[in-house]
Design goal:
8 strands; alpha/beta; 51% helix; 12% strand; EC 1.1.1.94; 14 helices
């Protein structure tokens, strides 16, 4: 078996579809009783070599497990199922920072499953694009260079190209922080402030991302790659991004479906707390956290950001 994907949401299903080009894949979900087509990813037929199951022990027969789970659900899943996961290669696709620990996916995995090989798969991608076989490039981060090389070759396909790095911190922080900035970008568009304002948010937001990530040990060049600037560009400019759509609804004063997972909401709160703890200035992220909680109006948030003391870029 090429790999198992744990998490049968749209993104997990799309990855299963993509890597099934390399061989058999097992796709696990708690309520994965459907066959042929996942209701979470309509219009996409599953290849015959994709086995869909709700039996976790069966899915974990593979030596490589892709954890396609939301960031805020990952810790609980790891704690409950570590006996199935230890000793495997675990590849996390979560893009967020855990609210309870203020740490990223790799730290959660390391604590719950100390005998695993840890990797992070992240970068500019939408589930629908991957599932349709559209060309996509992602970052695969693994501190073990040999293990990363193996995973890179096992999971890359003719239309899914993986670039390897050993900078796990940089890759996962880029993926988490860009969601927060995408909410801010959506907010300025929803509020009718225009593309110039969005460009300013993207640029200053990237400065914030780089500032926090490098403070936490990331390499600057990682942030300028697919997992940082690449993913930031995609999610700040496309309505396919749930974080962007959530921000646009905030800016326009429209309701948003709260049953839809928007990773940047919880991550903005985690980032605000983390930045305060280590003394790093993150004004956009802090304002997104307040906006998402309803603690400040869009008008007041914009006024606050625009009247901050003038300084050099």
């Amino acid at each position: 078996m090429t790999a198992s994907v744990l998490g049968a949401g749209a993104f997990g299903t799309a990855l299963a579809v993509a890597i099934s080009a390399n061989g058999p894949v097992c796709l696990w979900g708690r309520n994965a009783t459907w066959r042929g087509e996942n209701p979470r990813l309509p219009g996409i037929s599953l290849a015959r070599n994709i086995t869909v199951t709700d039996d976790l022990s069966r899915a974990c027969d593979s030596p490589t497990l892709i954890l396609a789970l939301p960031a805020q659900s990952l810790r609980g899943f790891l704690d409950q199922n570590s006996s199935f996961l230890n000793g495997k290669a675990l590849v996390s696709t979560a893009k967020g920072i855990d609210l309870s620990t203020l740490t990223g996916p790799s730290a959660l995995i390391r604590q719950a499953c100390p005998t695993t090989q840890i990797a992070v798969l992240t970068g500019p991608s939408f589930a629908a694009d991957i599932a349709k076989g559209l060309p996509t490039a992602l970052t695969l981060a693994c501190e073990d260079a040999a293990g990363g090389n193996r995973l890179q070759h096992d999971l890359s396909t003719p239309v899914l190209r993986l670039y390897r790095t050993t900078d796990v911190a940089g890759a996962e922080l880029g993926g988490a922080l860009k969601n927060v900035i995408a909410i801010a970008a959506g907010t300025v568009i929803g509020a009718g402030l225009g593309d110039s304002a969005r460009a300013a948010i993207i640029t200053r937001g990237f400065a914030e991302m780089s500032r926090l990530a490098t403070r936490l040990g990331a390499r600057p060049e990682t942030l300028t790659g697919l997992s940082g600037l690449g993913d930031l560009t995609l999610t700040c400019t496309s309505a396919q991004s749930r974080n962007f759509r959530f921000g646009a609804a905030l800016g326009a004063g429209r309701p948003f479906d709260r049953t839809t997972t928007v990773e940047g909401v919880a991550t903005s709160r985690a980032v605000a707390a983390l930045a305060e703890r280590i003394g790093t200035d993150m004004p956009i992220a802090a304002m997104v956290a307040r906006l998402a909680e309803g603690a400040v109006s869009v008008e007041k948030a914009i006024e606050h950001l625009m009247t901050r003391p003038l300084k050099e870029e």
